[in-house]
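Whether sequence alone determines local backbone shape is best considered at the level of individual chains. The sequence in question and its structure tokens are set out directly beneath this paragraph.

***
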Amino acid sequence: MGGKSTPTLPAAENKLPKEGKDAVVKKDRANLAPSNRPDASKSWTIEDSELLYRIEGWGEPYFSINAAGHVTVSPKGDRGGSLDLFDLVNALRARNLGLPLLIRFSDILQHRIERLNACFAKAIARYNYQGSYRGVFPVKCNQQRHLVEDLVKFGRPHQFGLEAGSKPELMIALAMLDTPGSLLICNGYKDQEYIETAMLATRLGQTPLIVLEQIEEVQLVIDVAKSLGISPILGVRAKLSTQGVGRWGVSSGDRAKFGLTIPEIITAVDQLRSAEMLDCLQLLHFHIGSQISSINAIKEAIQEASKIYVELAQLGANMKYLDVGGGLGVDYDGSQTNFHASKNYHLQNYANDIVAEVKEACDERQVTVPTLISESGRAIASHQSVLIFDVLSTSDVPTGSPPPLQDEEHPIIRYLWETYESITSENYQEAFHDATQFKEEALSRFNFGYLSLTQRARAERLYWACCEKILGIARQQEYVPDDMEDLEKIMASIYYINMSVFQSAPDSWAIDQLFPIMPLHRLDQEPTCRGILADLTCDSDGKIDQFIDLRDVKHVLELHPFKSGEPYYLGLFLSGAYQEIMGNLHNLFGDTNAVHIQLTPKGYQIEHVVKGDTMTEVLGYVQYDAEDLVESIRKRCEQALQEKKITIQESQRLLQTYEQSLGRYTYLSSF
């Protein structure tokens, strides 16, 4: 089968793994080297920003930077037409849509579906595959109604279907999927009601494929089928010995949560044969995990599954479909490697390997090739939405020239001043150690009462001045010693952002998922600050301090100086899968405002506006009634009036503000 797949990318193994990073130059240090940053001798350009934020790597063909230094979006990919995201956000804010704001681009969704189908069509033609491809979208990735409606609409020319993993998702799929000939894959745990509903849907002209995930479901399906007098289309989900890679690699294998072992599959075949229903078994399904970063894992899984498929056919099952599950990766960091936040293959590689492996296995055993199914959710939905949020303020370490020495200065302060004055490119490492030691001594002496608060403040300002001077030297070095690797993070500013990580980017908090984050504007200016992002929640975990980079992860993001009174917009990209539905109400920050944008010959149109949660709505989620709350405050105001603790004007203002706030957005308003 030589030459069956286009070559994988040459940089496939170049990503530095998280394990064993101490043996290599970390990303944070590599960023300080002149070879990894734009030439400081020339003025900043948008090309420098493209390189810094790696937008061409993760954003192609949808996102780029224009001459004004603004991020642009091309929802139709390389077919033309683009929008300035900065201008779009300002236009939406003028329509009273506050930030944070989730913008969904329907055209990107359509383009992703078309691209996936085109790649499989090309692979089928290349290998003279006699079967077809029928994709399905797993509803669990994003259950939002308008998005599912768009998926069904854009998928209609390709007979694109849906996959349900629960009874509620089955209800959605049955009601929304009206494409003739499309498939409805029924996964997840099933009870009698689930199975009956799926089987009866065949009377409506739909094509549900009930996938047996647990051995107990086999007899349940047999009983329901006989009761209804319906011959269902059944599948089995196999626990492959092949395991995926990355964060979800453990979700496959013999101890996987879902699926049947090989002995259980044989038992299921025997049960169906005894019930004279073996002809109903038509599908083999497997899943080796989400976000598979290495094409080798995909190849190995397809090889194993193809062998199981042909064996089932030769056991007498009426095999027609092979569902390769999900796992098609998204290149979040643009490195094109097997790092967990990337992938070392293109979409065409993926389609080629699936088609070629299945064809080879079937040809060897003279089995008719199956209709191929994939459940690609992340790869379809991730690109279509962008979360926009603004910076509210910053917290910076003290910088600038240190205060001059005074007469009778404490020795610790003198030592710090001398350290600051003596820092050079030859001794900056030693100076860092000295400054750190003197700072610790200052804190110790303060705790024992030998240093005043004013003196401690002067010592700390001198320490930060030393760090700033040392960092400026370190950024010019080819190599930064291990013991100084956290200096950049120590000196980073905190940018307070108008969003909740727990609501809008829960995977960033829960599993350290990396998302591309960058400013939407000022990209023709050098970002001279380094920062981490802190959200609105009262939780120390409510921050983002891991960002994409070429070889690993960097812990600060290059940002522009915050200017009070001026908007500074940041965008979090590739967040269209899982984040919306998995978000939680930490501190009662609710769903964000969302808009659906579609490109038109004259620019764009707003298809849908989905208003974010109000305070009344989120309080209702936790069983508070807004009218009861208002009445409680009214009574307390009356009591305070009687006790002459508040004036009538103050009480009315409090009541009015309280009641108006309940009907407003849970996030902060600014500018």
Remarks:
- Confidence is low (pLDDT under 50) at residues 1-36.
- Residues 429 and 481 are 8 Å apart (CA to CA).
- DSSP finds 23 helices and 23 strands in the chain.
- The longest strand covers residues 385-395.
